[in-house]
Amino acid sequence: MSTSKNYAGIPDEFAQLEKSKIILIPVPYDGTSTWGKGADKGPEAFLEASENMEWYDIETDSEVYKQGIHLTDPIVESSSPEAMVKAVHSTTKDFIKRNKFVTLFGGNHSVSIGTIRAFNECFDNLTVLHIDAHADLRESYNGSKYNHACALHEASQTTNLVQVGIRSMDIIEKTLIDEEKTFFAQEMLNDEYWMDKVIDAMTDNVFITFDLDALDPSIMPSTGTPEPGGLLWFETLDFLKQVFEDKNVVGFDIVELCPNKNDKSPDYLAAKLYYKMLSYKFADQDVDQEYDNTYDIDYKSSTNSKFEDDED
User: Fold this and answer.
1) Distance (Å, rounded) from C-alpha 186 to C-alpha 228?
2) With the C-alpha atoms ordered 131, 136, 139, 142, is the resulting torsion angle positive or negative?
3) Which residues pair with 168 in a beta bridge?
4) Full set of structural domains in the chain with CATH
5) Angstrom distance (rounded) from CA 152 to CA 129
6) Exposure string (b/e) for 157-186, b if CB count within 10 Å is 16 or more?
7) What's the pTM?
């Protein structure tokens, strides 16, 4: 159980909403998982591990927590997958409009439907960088289009979707992928230029959705659907660092941590991954420098009305 009301136990002066550049929204949701259960316990395990993490990042020579990281109340909505997506969408969009750098920690991957929807409504020409073992492109699964197996279907229709690390999918998804923007794990293994190719496939504004089962089970066994042959730690960091350096990353989420009470190391890995991503984003920004995510709020009225009709 997390013992601090602040993310990573940081001092109150760096955790206040008004002074924080960064927002962290926990979404303890596991309503549509189909095999390993426990993603609803992921945010709590992540926060507990974060409290045992050093605040100084050696690689970037920075203490990103001093930019201000505000931990919100968790989004707890279990009445239906649709209601959960609607709550995530609304909360995420509200903080984006406050000019915050918004991050979320799930929960299973279905929470990202609402997250991506909010960012797509607020940022022009958005790329969704999807790092995952699974394509997650099915239009519907087990009777719901808000299933974790459908997490990126909407993004495939409404954003520039780039998928990295894919090594498992249903045959129906073969008809839905964009082969020029899908980087399969077995092909990445023998392509020393895969990172550059991913960068080239993206637009300037990028939202990252990181499913922890993209990582190899040797370092990340605590997921609902682990797949062999995944990314390792330093190649993942090398790739993410390049993305943050070359693109305007406007936000991100991390999902699918299913904690194991007998092995805390995956929880700690998730905590370090989150902090590293923040460190890459803000490494070159002074603590006192005002954060400006340089977007024009251009809400897509047709998109809004379509989704609102679906949710009602």
Assistant:
1) 11
2) negative
3) 134
4) 7-287 (3.40.800.10)
5) 10
6) ebbbbbbbbbbbbeeebeebbeeebbbbbe
7) 0.92
Query: Using one digit for the tens of pLDDT, what is the confidence trace for 159-208?
Result: 999 999 999 999 999 999 999 999 999 999 999 999 999 999 999 999 99
174: Cβ–Cβ under 8 A, 6 or more apart, which residues? Answer: none
Burial of 210 (0-12, 13-18, 19+ CB in 10 A): buried
- State the average pLDDT over residues 230-251: 98
E-strand stretches of 72-179: 101-106, 126-131, 160-166
Predicted local confidence at residue 37, as pLDDT: 65
Does the structure show a pLDDT above 60 at 298?
Answer: no
Quote the CA–CA distance of 28 and 81 in Å, as a whole number: 13
Residue 273 CA neighbour count, 13 Å, CB half: 33
Structure confidence at residue 312 as a pLDDT band (50, 70, 90): very low
Residues 6 or more apart from 54 whose CB is under 8 A from it?
A: none
Residues contacting 79, CB < 8 A, separation 6+:
none
Residues 6 or more apart whose Cβ sits within 8 Å of residue 58: none
- The pLDDT, as a whole number, for residue 83 is 92
Q: Can you tell me the distance from the alpha carbon of 208 to that of 246, in angstroms, rounded to the nearest whole number? A: 14
pLDDT band at 32 (very low <50, low <70, confident <90, very high): low
User: What does each C-alpha distance from 73 to 1, 197, 218, 304 come to in angstroms?
Assistant: 15, 38, 32, 25
Segment (H or E) for 273: helix 265-282
Cβ 275 vs Cβ 185: under 8 Å: no
